[in-house]
Design goal:
Number of helices: 10
Oligomer: single chain
CATH superfamily of the largest domain: NAD(P)-binding Rossmann-like Domain
Strand content: 15-25%
Distance between the termini: 20 Å
Number of domains: 2
Strand order of the largest sheet: 3-2-1-4-5-6
Largest sheet: 6 strands, parallel
Radius of gyration: 19 Å
CATH architecture of the largest domain: 3-Layer(aba) Sandwich
C-alpha cells in the first residue's frame, strides 16, 4: 500500500477531502494545522459551494465533479477523507479501493471496520477503509470501552442530543444509519454485550452544546467502583487530547448495577460554531486517525515527523 506514497511540502503527507459541506470544510481547517497531513484537494459536487470557494482561497485545489474528479486529479494521494453521506460512500468505497486509496469514512456507511482512535485504531492500521462510526459513537464508545476493560458491561444505552441547527442535510439523511451504526459500535468496539443508541435534535435557541448520556448495566459495578471511575476518567482525558472540548459534565454516577456518565462536547470554532460539537468531534477524530495512518503507511525516510 505504500508504493508511490510521497510526502508533500515540509514533509507532510498529501491527503484529499471528499465533500465540501460543513464537515468537509471544518475538516479542511483542522488538516491545515496538522504537522503530519497536507490537504491538497477538496472534491465537491457544487462548483459554487462555499466550501470549495474557501478551499481555493486557502490555496487548495478543488474539483466539482466529486469522486471522479478526485481520482482524476490526485493519483499520488493515498489517503482520502470521505465527508459526504452514507449512501454516497457505498459507491466511493468501491472506487477508492479499486484505486488503491485508503479511505477514512466520516459517514455511518460502515464499509470498513469501526474505528474510535483511543480504543482500537491500532488494530486496523492496514485496513483499506476505516469507519468513524458516528458523532455519538466517537463521544460514547470510549466510555463503554473504558468500563469494559475493567469488567463486563451487560448493556449500554446512549443518548446523543445535538442542536438542530448543527444537523445539516447530510446528518439528517443519515439518522437511521446513525442509530444502527452507533448501537453496533457500542458492542463491536465498546465491548458491551448489547447496545442501543438514540439521537435527539434539539431546536432550542440559542443552540445547545452536544450532550451525551451513557447508561451502562455493569453487574459488579459496586465491587469495581474505584477501578471503573479511574478508567472512565483516564479515557475522558485521552479523548480530550485530540478533542479539546470533550469533557464530563459531572462525575460518573453509580447506582447499583447502573453506571451513568454525562458528557458535553464543545466545538473548536474552526469553521463551525462552538455548539456544533457533534461535527467537531468527527473532524477531530478524522485528523487523529489520518495522522496515525499516515505515519504507518509512509515509508521510513519520507519525512513525516
Amino acid at each position: 500500500m505504500t508504493d508511490g506514497y510521497v510526502s508533500g511540502v515540509e514533509g507532510r503527507v498529501p491527503v484529499a477531502v471528499l465533500g465540501s459541506g460543513n464537515i468537509g470544510t471544518d475538516l479542511l481547517y483542522k488538516l491545515r494545522r496538522s504537522d503530519v497531513l497536507e490537504p491538497v484537494l477538496v472534491a465537491g459536487i457544487d462548483p459554487y459551494s462555499e466550501g470549495l470557494a474557501l478551499a481555493r482561497s486557502m490555496g487548495v485545489d478543488t474539483v466539482s465533479d466529486g469522486i471522479d474528479g478526485l481520482l482524476r486529479e490526485v493519483s499520488h494521494v493515498k489517503l482520502v477523507f470521505d465527508a459526504t453521506s452514507a449512501k454516497a460512500h457505498v459507491r466511493h468505497a468501491r472506487a477508492l479501493a479499486d484505486a488503491g486509496i485508503t479511505a477514512i469514512d466520516l459517514t455511518p456507511a460502515a464499509r470498513g471496520p469501526y474505528v474510535v482512535p483511543p480504543v482500537n485504531l491500532g488494530e486496523h492500521l492496514d485496513a483499506a477503509n476505516v469507519n468513524l462510526v458516528s458523532c455519538g459513537g466517537q463521544a460514547t464508545v470510549p466510555i463503554v470501552a473504558a468500563a469494559a476493560r475493567v469488567t463486563e458491561v451487560d448493556y449500554a444505552e446512549i443518548v446523543s442530543t445535538i442542536a438542530s441547527r448543527s444537523a445539516g442535510p447530510g446528518t439528517r439523511q443519515n439518522i437511521d444509519e446513525f442509530t444502527e451504526t452507533t448501537a453496533a459500535g457500542l458492542v463491536r468496539v465498546g465491548g458491551a454485550r448489547r447496545g442501543k443508541a438514540i439521537i435527539i435534535l434539539n431546536p432550542a435557541e440559542p443552540p445547545i452544546m452536544m450532550v451525551n448520556t451513557v447508561h451502562m448495566r455493569v453487574p459488579d459495578a459496586e465491587a469495581r467502583r474505584d477501578e471503573l471511575h479511574a478508567s472512565i476518567i483516564a479515557m475522558v482525558a485521552e479523548v480530550a487530547s485530540y478533542v479539546p472540548g470533550y469533557r464530563l459534565r459531572a462525575d460518573p454516577v453509580f447506582d447499583g448495577e447502573r453506571v451513568s456518565v454525562f458528557l458535553e462536547v464543545a466545538g473548536a470554532g474552526d469553521y463551525l460554531p462552538t455548539y456544533a460539537g457533534n461535527l467537531d468531534i468527527m473532524t477531530a477524530a478524522a485528523v487523529a486517525t489520518g495522522e496515525r495512518l499516515a505515519r504507518h503507511l509512509t515509508p521510513v525516510g519520507a519525512g513525516v515527523a
